[in-house]
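We treat protein structure as text, and this decision shapes the records that our systems exchange. The tokens are whole numbers drawn from a learned vocabulary of local backbone shapes. One such record is reproduced below, unchanged from the form in which we store it:
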Amino acid sequence: MLQTGNYSLVLLIQLTLLAYDLFVNSFSELSRGAPVIQLVLFIIQDIAILFNVIIILLLMFNTYVFQVGLVSLLLERFRALLIFSTIYLTLSICFHCWVMNLRWLDSNSFVWTDGLQALFVFQRTAAVFYYYLYKRTAEYMGDPRLYEDSLWLRDAFARARQ
């Protein structure tokens, strides 16, 4: 069972990783003069996204709902987050690779191809949905009803057995 103190720490870690992701999305262009620094920021950003997904999955596996076998109930509830997390991580990696490929040798030039602009728009749009869904899910995972037996869970279990 997730204790209040543990949940506060996990939530703090999640929100810190989200804040870092938002920071890199907002200010990474300011470091384009130093491609090595930008590469390190991008790598840490991608790892932070991956860690956030792993943390949410671990929180889901820790719930009583998961332990009694109602995985489909959890997947139905958090499907949008899992899909957008995958999309956002993929778009971020693609964007980072493309940007670094174009700017590595000539970092002071302002290179924005049409494809890169389109990828940039899609990646940032996916980021907005990812931030919203992730924050909502992270706060919902603190609901004590997910970690104990309750009437609504027994009803869901009875419906699943039929």
Observations:
- The CA atoms of residues 77 and 137 lie 9 Å apart.
- The two ends are 28 Å apart (CA to CA).
